[in-house]
Amino acid sequence: MRAFVERNYAVHPVVNAVIAQRFDEALQEAAAIDECLDAGDPDNQYPVEKMPFLGVPFTAKEAFAIKGMPNTSGLWARRNVISSSDAAAVSLMRRAGAIPLGLTNCSELCMWWESSNVIYGRTKNAYDQTRIVGGSSGGEGCILSAAGSVIGIGSDIGGSIRMPAFFNGVFGHKPTTGMVSCDGQFPYATDKMVNFLVTGPMCRYASDLIPMYKVLAGPNVSRLQLDKKVDLKKLTFFTMVDDGGSPLTSAVHPELRAAQKDVADYFEEKVGCTVRKVNLNLMKYSVQIWTSMMAASDSPSFKQEMSGAMSAEEQPPVNCAAELLRWALGSSHHTLPAIGLGLLEGLGRADAKAIAMCDSLKRELCELLNDDGVLLYPSHPLPAVYHNQSLFVMHNFAYTAIFNVLGVPVTQCPLGLSTEGLPLGVQVVAGPHNDHISLAVAQELEKAFGGWVKPNAN
Question: Which residues have a catalytic role annotated?
Answer without folding.
Answer: 61, 136, 160
